[in-house]
Automatic annotation (TrEMBL):
Domain SsfX3-like N-terminal: 8-115
Protein name: Uncharacterized protein
Protein origin, superkingdom: Bacteria
Domain SGNH hydrolase-type esterase: 144-322
Gene3D superfamilies: Galactose-binding domain-like (2.60.120.260), SGNH hydrolase (3.40.50.1110)
Source organism of this protein record: Nocardia cerradoensis
One Pfam family it belongs to: SsfX3_N
Length: 336
């Protein structure tokens, strides 16, 4: 999605908000149909959102406005110049100018907006008089990744250090991060949003939100998980879809939720859903057990036994990236 000076990546839409531009990770004109103010709020958080431009300027100034929505946590804009991280600029609350030093020669610049804790809006970037600037857009395969706070990566401080960002940067993929903390409840609205987007690869976290607070019974969970995956498959018949189950959470593995399901039960159930759809003919649906991505031996890389820190995200990227790349290699990318 291209404005006059920059290309937006990792967004579904960008809307005007006075002097600011607001990125959205779900369709803003349809969010009422989600029936979840919490999901709508998360859709306005700029997780995985990047601005791309090419310029010969010695610096670029990006006006930023941040409205915190959770407890205060450090937030940053990560700056990549010709594919290399050159700056990590802290941002606070309210309006401020993020000033980025650049080489002064024609360079490809990518700005990763803060991924957690605030709704971030941006103004029009500016460069010194005489410098040129134009939008830059990656041409890599499109990857949509859906999930909870584990996919949004709330503990990792820097936006380009999350496991989805690490995988996308390693492989040159264009990522749309649909990680919504405490909101990954297999919403039909989200399934339809994924179905409507161009994609070469899709990953779906069938994770601990399906267990925490007991949103589903043993009767309801399987059918809803299957319906979510089949909605995506109907719109993307040839795109590899990689589902992954909950990682190990040692303290809660065998603790029943309000509907009597343990985390171990939920993992087995959603893995069975994938196996059933595979037996019914979906040979481009893949399963990765969350226990393989992040197991009992990795708990030291979390803050609470469940949520990984930056080192934990790096480990997940190291383990999950090759599995995703192998799935993508089975199908020629779809360009649109």
């Amino acid at each position: 999605m291209t404005d006059d000076l920059v290309n937006w990546d990792g967004v579904v839409a960008v809307s005007d908000a006075g002097q600011w531009r607001q990125p959205w990770r779900l369709p803003p004109d349809r969010l009422a149909a989600a029936f979840s103010p919490e999901l709508a709020e998360h859709a306005a958080v700029a997780t995985g959102v990047r601005l791309g431009l090419v310029t010969d300027a010695a610096e670029v100034t990006l006006p930023v406005h941040s409205t915190p929505i959770w407890q205060p946590r450090p937030r940053f804009v990560d700056v990549f110049v010709d594919g290399r991280l050159t700056q990590r600029v802290p941002v606070g609350s309210g309006a401020e100018d993020v000033v980025v030093a650049l080489p002064g020669t024609r360079s490809r610049v990518e700005l990763w907006l803060p991924h957690r804790g605030a709704v971030t809006r941006v103004g029009a970037p500016s460069v010194p008089a005489g410098a040129t600037v134009e939008p830059w857009e990656s041409d890599g395969p499109r990857w949509i990744t859906y999930g909870s706070s584990l996919t949004q990566c709330l503990i990792t401080e820097a936006p380009s250090d999350t496991w989805p960002a690490r995988i996308a940067r390693t492989h040159g993929w264009r990522m749309l991060n649909l990680g919504f903390a405490a909101q990954a409840y297999l919403d039909p609205f989200v399934a339809r949003a994924i179905a409507a987007r161009p994609a070469d690869l899709i990953s779906v976290e069938l994770g601990p939100n399906l267990y925490i607070r007991g949103p589903f019974t043993a009767r309801s969970l399987g059918g809803l998980a299957a319906g979510f995956l089949e909605t995506i498959r109907a719109a993307h018949p040839d795109v590899p879809v990689v589902a992954f189950s909950p990682p190990v959470w040692v303290q809660r593995e065998n603790e029943p939720n309000p509907h009597g399901l343990t985390l171990r039960d939920v993992r087995a159930l959603v893995e069975d859903v994938v196996a059933v759809l595979q037996r019914l003919g979906d040979d481009n649906l893949h399963l990765v057990s969350g226990a393989e991505l992040f197991g009992a031996g990795d708990a030291a890389l979390t803050v609470d036994g469940l949520h990984p820190d930056a080192a934990g995200d790096a480990l997940i990227a190291e383990r999950f990236g090759p599995r995703l790349a192998a799935a993508l290699a089975t199908t020629a990318p779809v360009r649109s």
